[in-house]
Specification:
The structure is a homodimer of 330-residue chains.
Chain A: E1 4-9, H1 13-25, E2 30-36, H2 40-49, E3 55-56, H3 59-65, E4 70-73, H4 80-89, E5 93-97, H5 104-116, E6 121-124, H6 131-141, E7 148-156, H7 164-167, H8 169-172, H9 180-196, E8 199-207, E9 218-225, E10 230-236, E11 244-251, E12 255-259, E13 262-266, E14 273-276, H10 283-295, H11 304-324
Parallel strand pairs in A: 1-2, 1-4, 2-3, 4-5, 5-6, 7-10
Antiparallel strand pairs in A: 7-11, 8-9, 9-10, 11-12, 12-13, 13-14
Chain lengths: 330, 330
């Protein structure tokens, strides 16, 4: 079986903590043959973890010279457009860490480019590959909670400057709308769309409580799906003393409580059914899908189109919130 | 100390289960001297509990003939206007079970009448007297959680036809907007206004999942206070297998978790502080306030004005939701 020769562009937190563990497990499918970081030392440190492959500080040079079939792009969001365009032009398959782009305009251009070039493009949205959402969807499909009429997702967390991700300068001085609300929010919206279909209309309130971690950290988004199902999504990243990641799905015959990687199926007068998926964050499945898409010349499950809609929904919600809110700053 | 002579108009669930236990404890302040129910047997049954006082089937006759200073009106909502007006005209002090009236128009007329007649009028909204809210307000005022920036109140419950309140015909065939959403919703909005001040703007979605328990049973209301604080209030009364009554108050230094009669004060890196108020539903405090208002000729804490604003907020939210929602019916 021929391995995909993969170049890593951007060797920061996502590449090291999220992608690399999955790629180690998939060493029969991927071979990392080049890495790129604009800071040479960072590139070399990463290269040392993967067999001392060639290190580039200029991604253009890497695209031109390195022995690679595909690239894994894990960069500050505002660089996604430029680097992905260059990779397409160089005929490389692209595995692009979410969100798709720093603006709707750039996202649209990436969609158009993807159609033009005959390469595989996967938007790396791991929530689209997490087993817990797949199982929740199955339970709903099987009618376990009857007909879904509403859901409520609360994501309450205290992101401080001590947080690894919040320490990255490009997140603190975000060159894309919404800060953490966009960066993290696309995950949940991807899962919402995967589970319940498309959003029809909605309203939101948005705030900045701790400006040190980026432009906005607090958004409450209320919406209605095309099906009439009602959703509330609260993404509050400056909550003190209370951690919560809970999606409640309300059906006419029962409720699904989904907390990170655990599902509790609840019904009247019945013992709860519990399903746990402690190992799955979706990265392994993401790269497996990327491999299959390339080798079988088919669309990956998480396309640029899907990622584009995720980001449009979140940016629309952010913009609605900005126009709608008093912009309370304590 | 002179006792207030009290006539009970309407001897149903509220009078028997909510008011009577408080009045027993306040027998030094109130003496029930007459009861009224349009079904004589129901009136007699209640009268037997309070010393076999005179029973009336016509409230007008009671207002004219009975030896009473004040009335406790606990009737189907659509009768509040007519009976309260008559009580005012008869010069009786009025203790009126919430919500104030069946429409904004009738509510307004009651406000005007209250100003005209020189009697005490208390809108019996027990949430305005519950110790748990008073304590939460104190904790916020003391700065225990810093500056409040948002709150989220989830009320998830399965009201079936087996529920005592849902069995009352006037609730099933509600002659006031919103059904259970109005009847129960004014409680939470009263507490929200008590804790956080006035609501500036908001949006909502509303649904009927189980039409057997009244017109609407499911509403999600998102709003912003005058202060810029953001609130979400989900009142879902056809939730299966998941019971929840949780108000989370988010501050810049901590979070208050308020579940029915229990407060948990949560901060980063500190043990939780727990406060419980198992005995307080506010009815005792309500009648005590009514007594003090009458005897000291002062306004009660829960005025008709407050109750009017509570009902206007909920009716506005209901009407917004009706116009805004697809009206999904499974």
């Amino acid at each position: 079986m021929k391995k995909i020769k993969l170049g890593i562009i951007g060797t920061g937190l996502a590449a090291k903590n999220l992608h690399l563990p999955a790629l180690y497990k998939l060493s029969d499918k991927f071979e990392i043959t080049a890495v790129c970081n604009h800071t040479e030392k960072k590139g070399k440190d990463f290269s040392a973890l993967v067999g001392n492959v060639p290190v580039y500080t200029d991604y253009k040079k890497m695209l031109k010279e390195a022995d690679i079939d595909a690239v894994d792009i894990a960069l500050p969001i505002e660089l996604n457009h430029e680097v992905t365009m260059a990779a397409f032009k160089a005929g490389k398959h692209v595995f692009l860490e979410k969100p798709l782009a720093a603006s709707i305009k750039e996202g649209k251009q990436l969609l158009e480019a993807e159609r033009k070039y005959n390469v595989t493009a996967l938007l790396a949205e791991n929530f689209r590959y997490k087993q817990v959402f797949c199982s929740a969807k199955e339970l709903v499909k099987k009618g376990k909670i009857g007909k879904v009429f509403a859901f409520n997702w609360n994501l309450y967390y205290n992101v401080t400057k001590k947080n690894d991700y919040a320490q990255t300068k490009w997140r603190q001085e975000n060159k894309y709308p919404g800060g953490f609300v966009l960066d993290a929010g696309v995950h949940n919206i991807a899962a919402v769309r995967y589970l319940f279909g498309e959003i029809d209309n909605g309203t939101s309130y948005i705030k900045s409580i701790n400006s040190k971690i980026g432009e906005y950290d607090t958004m409450s988004f209320s919406f209605e799906m095309l099906t009439g199902v009602n959703g509330v999504y609260n993404i509050y990243f400056s909550v003190k003393g209370h951690w919560e990641d809970q999606l409640l799905i309300f059906g006419t015959k029962g409720t699904i409580e989904l907390c990170t990687n655990k599902i509790t199926l609840k019904k009247e007068d019945m013992p709860d059914e519990i399903y746990e998926y402690n190992e799955s964050f979706g990265y392994y499945e993401e790269f497996t899908d990327f491999y299959n898409a390339i080798t079988k010349k088919k669309k990956p499950f998480s396309t640029f189109e899907e990622g584009y809609i995720d980001m449009v929904v979140v940016i629309d919600a952010i913009n609605y919130g900005i126009a709608n809110s008093k912009g309370f700053i304590p």
